[in-house]
Amino acid sequence: MKKTFIAGLLLLAGTAQAHEVWVAAPSQLKADTVLKAELAYGDYPYVEKIPEARLHIFAPLKMINQDGEQQTLLQTGENYQYQSEKPLKAGSYWVTATYQPTFWSQNAEGWKMDNLPNTPNAVYCEQTQMFGKGLVNVGKQPVNADMAMTRVGLPLEIVPLKDPSKVKVGEPFPVQIFYNDMPLAGETVIATADTVVVKDLEASTGHREPQGFSGKTDSQGRVNIIPLIEGIWKIKVIHKTPFADQAVCQQSASYSTLILPVGKGLAKLPPKPEHHH
Question: Contact at 8 Å (CB) between 61 and 116?
């Protein structure tokens, strides 16, 4: 019975967050142009309106320039759409997304946005936080490689160890994972692309996203991503630790993504199939 219960908890832990966060922004932009970016939350690569009940979880998109200066983007249009206050000068910019720490507990009735004491008969609880980032290069000059390989300070962060604009199909692209400022060793990193996902859209919208890569980090938190097809790749890592107070919640879970264009992605996405529970 004990083994069955533990196995059930592990299954729940894997399904607590079927949705994830990533940054949808152009990798290349003309100089003196306003940046338009999207805070994506859902089934990759589809960007959709964020449910009103969850909107408060998200911080506004932020932008960091190559001098380390940070500014908050303006929310405009749909609730996931943002833009820069002014046209951007030539240079490289990180755009980051944050889903703030939020309790999720499950009981027989489903998921509730709360902790264990406030969820009757809860069998699992996870405090979730999510992060995403994407690089935008503005103007005709090359990507600022030093800036692209510098951490921006997300609690769980995927850091390129090579100029992202130099990545090629079939060649290793090294990244390093940091958790609370320390390299994260022995953690699984997975990756997929829009061009991979569309080969099995039913799986993706059924929360069984097809993957194009999986590998574990070494003792320094490094792993080589090997993109075997052109597309807009989403690299993802999940790290879970026991929550400090087990009476309040069982797991503290961090999710992080990095968008990495490799060649060209899809010119147009096919219609998203309906997901039947």
Answer: no
Verify cis geometry, omega within 30 degrees of 0, for the bond prior to 45: yes
Q: How far is the C-alpha of 105 from the C-alpha of 132, rounded, in Å?
A: 23
Beta carbons within 10 angstroms of residue 61's beta carbon: 26
Beta strand pairing call for 124-138 and 28-29? parallel
DSSP character at residue 202: H
CA dist., res. 11 & res. 190, Å (int):
18
Question: CB–CB of 105/124 below 8 Å?
Answer: yes
All domains of the chain, ordered by start, with CATH? Answer: 2-262 (2.60.40.1930)
CA distances from 234 to 114, 189, 248 (A): 29, 11, 33
What distance in Å separates the CA atoms of residue 142 and residue 119, rounded to the nearest whole number? Answer: 52
**Model pTM score:** 0.92
The angle at the Cα of 60, spanning 56 to 12, to the nearest 5 degrees, equals 50
Residue 202: both structure tokens together: 């039913």
| Paired tokens of 83 | 């833009």
Task: Say if strands 213-216 and 222-225 run parallel, antiparallel, or are unpaired.
Answer: unpaired
Predicted pLDDT of residue 13: 43
Q: Which of the residues in the chain have pLDDT under 70?
A: 1-18, 275-277
DSSP three-state, residue 12: helix
- Please choose, from the candidates 44, 258, 68, the residue with its C-alpha nearest in 3D space to the C-alpha of residue 162: 258
Strand extents, DSSP E, 108-250? 110-112, 124-138, 156-160, 173-179, 182-183, 188-193, 213-216, 222-225, 231-242
How much is the pLDDT for 5? 40
Alpha carbons 161 and 225: distance in angstroms, whole number = 11
| Cα(47)–Cα(23) distance, integer angstroms | 10
